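Here is one such protein, fold included:

. . .
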Amino acid sequence: ILMVDEKGKNMKCLTFFLMLPETVKNRSKKNSKKGNSSSSSSSKLPPVCYEIITLKTKKKKKMAADIFPRKKPANSNTTAVQQYHQQNLNNNNTIPAPNWQGLYPTIRERNAVMFNNDLMADVHFVVGPPGGTQRLPGHKYVLAVGSSVFHAMFYGELAEDKDEIRIPDVEPAAFLAMLKYIYCDEIDLAADTVLATLYAAKKYIVPHLARACVNFLETSLSAKNACVLLSQSCLFEEPDLTQRCWEVIDAQAELALKSEGFCDIDFQTLESILRRETLNAKEIVVFEAALNWAEVECQRQELTATIENKRKVLGKALYLIRIPTMALDDFANGAAQSGILTLNETNDIFLWYTAAKKPELQFVSKPRKGLVPQRCHRFQSCAYRSNQWRYRGRCDSIQFAVDKRVFIAGFGLYGSSCGSAEYSAKIELKRQGVILCQNLSKYFSDGSSNTFPVWFEYPVQIEPDTFYTASVILDGNELSYFGQEGMTEVQCGKVTVQFQCSSDSTNGTGVQGGQIPELIFYA
């Protein structure tokens, strides 16, 4: 009787080896008839019949990956498995050690060994534009399992039996990132190649990798790259990413328009931005951004960046700039002296500012709506006392977190409780101790208990589910109002804001009472 207990497979095997008495007796008679049989051989009779009874539990069977979980090495020495992974990343094409399959307990890991490896490769790709190509090995079966395009290419009705396939429109790094996902089930994205990887994933219909690329772009989206990503999102037909880009461009319009990436967009994207009704920017900033784009576009078209050529590349997009809505000083000192306008256009716009009978203009004369800021008020009441609230250069601070991405534009602050007064305010916004922005400005209070807005130079993007620290250092001779009955959670439109005390607060402000009664934001 042999009892085997194999741990990890959710089963116990109990095996019986049975020798039937009748069979033993018959075998003994047969051996006794043979003259050359010795007594020693007759004593070692092999079993002629056996029965196996297997008892199984009702537990679910585990996969190999569950039985053999990948463990981190105990020390810093590189294991054989890690060496093979690094080898494949570098495409060294070193012949694996004998029985290399035994190093990997799961089919996923064994399959990953083939990534970028010439071993058993039955197709090669020459990837990249002329002069920058890279030859990469592939395995038709693995590729066909990971992509319907590769399946049609290798096993479809119109499949071509080629040993080498040229792909000039995909960057080698992006193609390798896609292959790594197909072979290793790993997503390895970088900021400088994610757009090219998204293009490859779209071309070869690898939807999960494409979705990961879009998520990566959404999380890394900022005013610096929003315009470029807007152009690319339209090209790749990613409406969610397009919407996120518009949110950033609308709220942080001046930063987006002044970024280098704005000059890299195509003409169609330029028109859509200039036409945008909710663009939260001064029109002079829009005008200067359009001229910067025109100068770079002249270089792309190999034209001299003259006034005539700039106007030529702008075309009808010039009239989407709402020049008549500029402040008169901005027009007189900026657009009117830029040379981009004709003499008649300049005269007509000056008349538009000053004359009772305004001339007809080709330019849009209606101001943009921009964005309406929202205010999150965290106190249920306010008060004042004969000795509060005083400022001695100390910091009033509070921490907050939101459940949706917003853009903090400034704070609402209390004013004097003893009549009209002027205050100097240094406002600051931090995340995990890192200063995101700060601004020093003055505001005038009229003696009421109202709050008065103090703005940052540009709105600041706030990510959800992360606590930020809002701080202010006020300087003023008069006592001010302060908040009472503070709330730890406030619902403001579709945004939920949570508050907690900050260790930076040295002047008494906390959740229940104090200063910084309002957060002003765009959502």
Summary: Confidence is low (pLDDT under 50) at residues 1-78. The domain at 238-354 is CATH 1.25.40 (Serine Threonine Protein Phosphatase 5, Tetratricopeptide repeat). The CA atoms of residues 170 and 200 lie 6 Å apart.
